[in-house]
Amino acid sequence: MAQINENYSKLQASYLFSDIAKRVNRFAEENPDQPIIKMGIGDVTEPLPEVCRKAIHDAVDEMGTRTGFHGYGPEQGYAFLREAIAENDYSPRGCEIKPSEIFVSDGSKCDSGNIQEIFSESAKVAIPDPVYPVYVDTNVMGGRTGQNVNGRYEGLVYLESTPDNGYVPSPPEEAVDLIYLCFPNNPTGACATREQLQEWVDYARRNKAIILYDAAYVAFIRDPEVPHSIYEIGGARECAIEFRSFSKNAGFTGTRCAFTVVPEELFAYDSAGEKVSINKLWNRRHTTKFNGVSYPVQRGAAAIYSPEGKKEVKTLTDFYMENAAIIHKTMTELGFSCVGGTNAPYVWIKIDGSSWDFFDELLHKTGIVCTPGAGFGTCGEGHFRLSAFNTRENVEKAMTLIKEHFGK
Ligand SMILES: *Cc1c(COP(=O)(O)O)cnc(C)c1O
């Protein structure tokens, strides 16, 4: 009799986006003439940059020739892409990352979800709250938690991101083994300072812990003082893995390309206390379970590092950041306390009371759909998220409606 992995039975169904859809559909049926503006979008809305499309087209044509055909490539990614990443994303920020430390994949969701596999089932894990749900759920699947009690899994250490700490949690008192951090953060849009990240790196090194650093939104940082990579922090090469993606900077959410950095100085321990190279372990896992991102897509990703590509990515991210600035300014002027929106495409807005009640009020009074904070974790309650991934027209309309409703 085949038995399931019962850790999966502990998972809570994620009702967030289906609940939102249900409420929006009901509202639309009852109010057929009311336009609805979706301001909760977590996907990019602008088309794929021209440099990427051209590089992908050219690569497809190349694949149609006997000499330009590419079969299986290196599982870790082609050298042209790994070298471009090291030279453009890391060297200019003073981080020496070798191409052999970069693993190209088809998404940061997979990478940040798969990484836990190479660590002990008994690893103690710290995860921010509120948070991107992948980190929690994959650790539940991996058997590192007990049951979910009142919205929290037994056995996890929750790093609370609240107004009191400016939505940037400090290291816990207790020792943990794995720490997930995400800056600029989804959903709060908050960024950690150099000093705050240094505290995390020092904590990780003291405890021989590993930081799993999700930098999916790095392209939206506008303040040069905000660290772009965990490797800008002294000692991070010995305690951190970094995840990056082409999804949000270059609109690759439907094209699929990302990468993970695992430095050669990074070690964990086996049960005999012997040091094991995490770069080698991840390489083993990646090359066994993954056969590489398609050649045309890697060419498309590499194109963003050309001078023209850099310009297009800047234009694209500037467009979203102008949306974010409009949202942030309007909400602030209306007296809401908000974070994010200045170095991230999300604005995280504080409210009194229940985020689902606020969601309903906003929908019924204005036709605007937000994301209620409670959907991202216990500490998301009392907040809602507005996304800058939208057309300018929708953002402006939404802000006018919000001003009409709240501006009294
Ligand atoms: C969008 C996003 C990613 C990127 O995921 P992909 O699988 O590369 O599309 C990673 N982390 C967070 C927090 C995100 O919001």
Automatic annotation (TrEMBL):
Keywords: Aminotransferase, Pyridoxal phosphate, Transferase. It comes from Oceanipulchritudo coccoides. It catalyses: (2S,6S)-2,6-diaminopimelate + 2-oxoglutarate = (S)-2,3,4,5-tetrahydrodipicolinate + L-glutamate + H2O + H(+). One of its GO terms (molecular function) is L,L-diaminopimelate aminotransferase activity. Pathway: Amino-acid biosynthesis; L-lysine biosynthesis via DAP pathway; LL-2,6-diaminopimelate from (S)-tetrahydrodipicolinate (aminotransferase route): step 1/1. It comes from the Bacteria. It is an enzyme of class 2 (transferase). Transmembrane segments: none annotated. Its cofactor is pyridoxal 5'-phosphate. The keyword Cell wall biogenesis/degradation does not apply. GO terms for biological process: lysine biosynthetic process via diaminopimelate. This is LL-diaminopimelate aminotransferase. Pfam families: Aminotran_1_2.
